[in-house]
């Protein structure tokens, strides 16, 4: 299997090399989960245009399962996601530590885990920690599988829920949302995955930009 994946990655690299736009020396294909594109990877695209104009970029927005598979198959060079799959022919690198925090639209919350609470599906680890912290919420009234969608919902209709600290920071600054005092925070680290046979210089330069943008992003 590792040899087969190496051949697929070589084929994909050759195909992209042939299709290089004029004036570009290399091409990188990168995918990311939707919640990581805004603002992290959008800002990274601007960084690439300034710092590495000779590299053409192809992007993909997807869910973790598909992104893991596409890197393994050589369709993507890099994926940035929260739930990497560890396989012998893939490298997994921690990009930054994220936290999920409980926020509410109520400036004086008496019971943030109430009828207006929105449960966001942040994966199996979150479900485990959430279940231990809030056993009374075994059957939430509103279950949403996409963080940005749930955030838009509570900003429009009111309510509370767990969200990425980086995503809610602008809304905390504006007063639209409020941190719930003494509520537990749950870890939610982000990773980059890429094939072991990928061009090391291209990977290094790309991840340099992603890490720099992550350090500059408040949260």
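-> sequence recovered:
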């Amino acid at each position: 299997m590792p040899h087969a994946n190496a051949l697929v990655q070589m084929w994909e690299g050759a195909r992209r090399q042939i299709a290089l736009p004029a004036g570009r020396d290399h091409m990188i294909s990168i995918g990311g989960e939707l919640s990581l594109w805004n603002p992290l990877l959008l800002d990274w695209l601007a960084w690439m245009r300034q710092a590495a104009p000779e590299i053409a970029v192809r992007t993909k927005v997807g869910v973790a399962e598909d992104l893991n598979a596409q890197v393994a198959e050589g369709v993507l060079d890099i994926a940035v996601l929260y739930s990497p799959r560890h396989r012998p022919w893939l490298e997994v690198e921690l990009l930054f530590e994220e936290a999920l925090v409980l926020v509410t639209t109520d400036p004086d919350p008496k019971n943030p885990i109430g009828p207006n609470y929105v449960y966001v599906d942040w994966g199996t680890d979150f479900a485990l920690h959430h279940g231990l912290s809030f056993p009374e919420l075994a059957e939430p009234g509103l279950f949403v599988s996409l963080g940005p969608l749930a955030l838009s919902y509570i900003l429009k209709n009111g309510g509370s829920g767990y969200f990425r600290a980086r995503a809610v920071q602008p809304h905390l600054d504006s007063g639209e949302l409020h941190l719930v005092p003494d509520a537990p925070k749950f870890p939610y680290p982000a990773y980059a995955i890429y094939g072991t046979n990928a061009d090391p210089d291209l990977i290094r330069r790309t991840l340099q930009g992603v890490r720099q943008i992550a350090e500059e992003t408040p949260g």
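The longest helix spans residues 34-51.
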